[in-house]
Amino acid sequence: MKPLSLLAAASLIASAFGAVPLHAQSPAALTATSPDGSLVLSVTTDNDKRPTWSLSRKGKLLIAPSRLGFLLADGINMTRGFAIAGSETAKGEETWEQPWGERRFVHDKHNEVLVRFVQAEEDGARRMNLRFRLFDDGIGFRYELPEQPALKTMRITDEVTGFTIAPKGEAWWIPGGEWNRYEQVYQHTAIDAVSTAHTPITMKLEDGTHLAFHEAALVDYAGYWFKRADGQSFRTTLAPSSQGPAVVRDLPFATPWRTVRIADEAAGLVENDLELNLNEPNKLGDVSWFQPGRYIGIWWGMIRGDWTWAEGPRHGATTQRTRQYIDYAAAHGFRGVLVEGWDKGWNGNWFGHGQDFSYTQATPDFDLDGLADYARSKGVHLIGHHETGGNIANYESQLDDAMALYEKLGVDVVKTGYVTDAGGIVADTDRYGLKPGATRMAWHDGQRTVNHYLDVVEVAAKHHVAVNTHEPVKDTGLRRTWPNWVSREGARGMEYNAWGAYANGPDHEPTLVYTRMLSGPMDFTPGILSLEGAEGVPLASTLAKQLGLYVTLYSPIQMAADFVEELDKHPREMDFITSVPTDWAESHLIAGEVGDYAVFARKDRASARWFVGGVNDATPRTVKVDFRFLDPGKAYEVRIWKDGEGASYLTEKRHAIAYDTRTVQKGDTLDVWLAPGGGMAMRIVPKP
Ligand code: NOJ
Ligand code: CA
Fold first, then answer.
1. Among residues 136, 471, 614, 661, which is most buried (max CB within 10 A)?
2. Is any atom of ligand 1 closer than 6 Å to the C-beta of 387?
């Protein structure tokens, strides 16, 4: 770490003795560097005594001076009148193990600086600390608000953390704060044409540098949107609350980390554990009761409209059909069977009527106990489902009973759902100190619902149940601390393909890889081998791309989403799907560009096998797979599923697939053609 200036050192000594030097000893500016020296942070105050931060990389300005601070209710300002009162530095290095994930071991090496800001007496004498962690491939920083006489509770109307991106560039993003939550089509624009975006937002600068802005450890706070103020200047704006301020917190507390991943190439954004490293270690201890695995489910039929969640002649979740799915799962090595619409409450207009859902009572045509016994006898696990319709007041009132029931039945994963427009969450107000039983509206990413999602995860953990949240708040790496929060939606998943031709365009998945997937696992639900949505509408996908999704879009629970009758028509594709792992020792992006294509190589955590998968946008291309990741001096058999001649998502030849088997070793390469909207998959097994 670069030595602090003499002034800073003097101030450090002063603060070590308990004095908060406001005048003579205060350094005007501090700098800190990442372990390899490539990133240089500067923290200072501007001519209006406003705290600012800036960042250079390899000698080039990346983030121009950008503001820090808060706007509080009651006219209190925490953006001006500050001086640096002192600082502390630290270093950290460790390698820690994930219970499950994209890689078994995660390395954390960082330099840290804590900067103490104090407001002048006439500006309110408030204190605000900033903790910066510099890694070689990114930076994270958070506000730490210490206990102080002039401020007991912060009612934060907005946080004004700035990000002024110095070089020009392009961005991939979805709008934040719009009605459809995170389920938007990705936009690709110039950076100065972004409006208000969700994070992660990904950028490529003129010189090729890749950036992704996001946050880590979003707990008891509102999620932030990345709002453009002017040119390439952005600032945080917090998801709102119907109680007034977006966030209310008693001091002391720390905000989530604001993060920027930084890399020369797209792969450096993807193979980057910044947010995980900024989260707290596992709080749950041994979570071996959660087993990653593949699943099927009574689901696509409702999404397409062939079956219903509601009771009646087309009810999907019948005892008979569930037995059929359990049998299929047992025969093909699927660990789980998801059943939606098993519970009471779906019969009315469930959208907007979340008060009707029961989480403990099954419909009369669904023998819950009998099916749980049947599944157990076949070595299969039912996957539970809790749709809330956004009524978290009703869900919270049944939460403990609901999870206890699942525990009793041996259901160890639950998919939850919060289908309502943004701002449409119905929450009780006890937590605001208001009348018990009263409700108020909330946002999926507002402080109230952020707390709710985590409460669900904690109650579920108590009952040894893992959670897969649909209509979630964005993932901020909390799976490190609560490893039973195993997957979530939080982007347009496969379901959109049921509702319109090419509803998710061919570039959707190769964009997800570099945007949404940076935040964590996604329950995308691949495996629509029919390549057809409702009324036969085509998917923007070839058959080989459906297989490529299993390797490119990571989740520890991975669905084969089609009807079992359709899966049955594709024994050769099922050979891949029923062998692809959902837990990895290593993961590498071996080729790809944001929004264009992505090819991963991942090593099974339970064997010496490797798997390769790729997804492509609309432009056909040939990619070179370099087997450099294999162990030297060993021969491997590669089984290949690839786009057939003339394959294209635009024609009936989307079904064209070709198969190949080769022997390869480290040092070999193989050219693979990816069709428009195409993809590929490989299984690589060491030869005896
Ligand atoms: C939307 C979810 O994304 C989908 O998977 C689920 O089936 C429905 N809500 C009903 O809960
Ligand atoms: Ca959804």
1. 614
2. yes
